[in-house]
């Protein structure tokens, strides 16, 4: 059956008055925002961002994509043309809650059908609060091929931020593979299992430096044409600063696998924002950043101005062989390409397995005084999610409470709103706990078998939910991994972190109930737990998943639904797949 054609006028969008009313109702944003329009074409191009040439997804020829800059209350309209020859696409606006527009969250299989090659799709939504956010592909493992970028939302002039700076700059951090998305995904879904391995490079603002002399993936006769260190694509990113000035660095991570440590040689960084919420300021030498997180830090250009300094990001939480990414902090008027007098490895980086330091930074992130969102005193439901590695019919999978997730062919939002009862497993009883009394999180699972499901967690609208994320041993002895979990459509309060197995009677006594930070992405450390609380007050269907591409692809995620009856009529532009072909 042919897929229905989408009309050229976006087929179905709320008008600006309705969107502004929704933003006003939920976040007290005055309905005075501008409409900011963007016209994007996404396609593959040959580029060499780490000096190794491969196919890279670009937006209007750029990688990373253009930064969206807006003010709180503005309406963003992105007209996106899929110019891939054979690939679908969907774009998620990471950290934007999509209040009143859940169909534009951009998650294939959850909120929309994918955008087919040659089609044009229009996203339209309000940015309802200031902060630092990102966007990226949310189709398969496509994000790591380059469809990424940042979103800056400033507050109204009448509501100044609680810190000052002279200039505002972006730092988008990524890791980079030379194999294609399809090759890696095929390996993950094969018997025998083929792991994606460690990334070949790390990148800062889309630029890395792969060592072409160590190239093991291309025959020597072809290396000179495929890997070229003099290619302008991989010249180091340079941040030029004026001595004495203060810079706000908006740092975001969209790595496919890696947790990172970010540092600037000889300089302190003052953390002031996390995931769009103001932080009680604290100073660090290095900033730990997990995939899906954003931070703002203040950098004072107060060091010796007669030289330049190294900026680096390096892998933590894994015994990785990938070398650090390097950029240059250039003190004006030094020449931008003047090499710092120290070695690239002069930045002091924590040991990869120094979990205590990473945990200490997480615990230090608290809501800024005067900007604390009151924590609901109690929760209506507690869900404990055990993260495990398993096998299903011989295939290696990641699971939550022994259930490995997979997308349905018909997006949940459409199936629920149109009562398509056979579009996914409506009878699924979502497991809200595991056998914590008997399960040994420090040992390989005695029974590695799990099940798969496309069932969802249905929450009472406006209820308060606690989620405990519990890490455990993988299928390799003495091994547990860091998992950054991202919640769509909501922010949550971070109640606490801990080592070992969560104790349901004792650990809640140690929750931060005074000034917990709100975030949309949070890390769970190896053999540890993280507790969060959110209010299910945004009608729709929302993903909650590990932000590591391969882990989510292998089933590490769940889906929450609440208030589906309060969702307005769905736009036909999101339909055309599964049972929506009718």
TrEMBL record:
It comes from Arabidopsis thaliana (Mouse-ear cress). GO terms for molecular function: copper ion binding; L-ascorbate oxidase activity; oxidoreductase activity. GO terms for biological process: positive regulation of defense response to insect; response to iron ion. Its main location: secreted. Keywords: Copper, Disulfide bond, Glycoprotein, Metal-binding, Oxidoreductase, Repeat, Secreted. Its EC number is 1.10.3.3. It is found in: Secreted. Residues 42-156, 171-333, 442-562 form the Plastocyanin-like domain. This is L-ascorbate oxidase. Belongs to the multicopper oxidase family. It is an enzyme of class 1 (oxidoreductase). GO terms for cellular component: apoplast. It comes from the Eukaryota.
